[in-house]
Amino acid sequence: PPYRQGLAQRVLDGASLAALLVPGAWVSVEAAREEALPESGGLLVKVREDCYGDTKLALYERTGDSPEGKE
């Protein structure tokens, strides 16, 4: 929360989030059930998505690739 404001995409795309995470780290994203979540964002890739009532939960894993492919 808050839902339906596009915050998940902005956070996932943020380079500062990926910088805090080691390769293999997980991020959990909660959204409204009808809200579309991206398959990836920055260095994070969605590995699972489930719905529970009106809520959607998605798990993203931080990849080992840097944007320049040098990591």
Present the secondary structure layout.
Blueprint: H1 7-13, H2 15-20, E1 26-32, E2 40-41, E3 44-52, E4 55-62
List keywords for this structure.
2 helices; 71 residues; four-stranded antiparallel sheet; alpha+beta
Structure explained in plain terms:
- The protein has 71 residues and is an alpha+beta fold.
- The chain contains 2 helices and 4 strands, in the order H-H-E-E-E-E.
- The protein has helices spanning 7-13, 15-20; strands spanning 26-32, 40-41, 44-52, 55-62.
- It has a 4-stranded antiparallel β-sheet.
Helix coverage percent? 10-25%
Count of helices? 2
Compute the separation of the termini in Å: 33 Å
> Taking all residues together, what is the mean pLDDT?
87
Structural class by SSE content: alpha+beta
Radius of gyration: 12 Å
Total strands: 4
Characterize the main sheet. Answer: 4 strands, antiparallel
Strand order of the largest sheet: 1-4-3-2
Order of helices and strands: HHEEEE
Low-confidence stretches at least 5 residues in length (pLDDT < 50)?
none
Task: Based on Cα principal axes, name the global outline.
Answer: globular
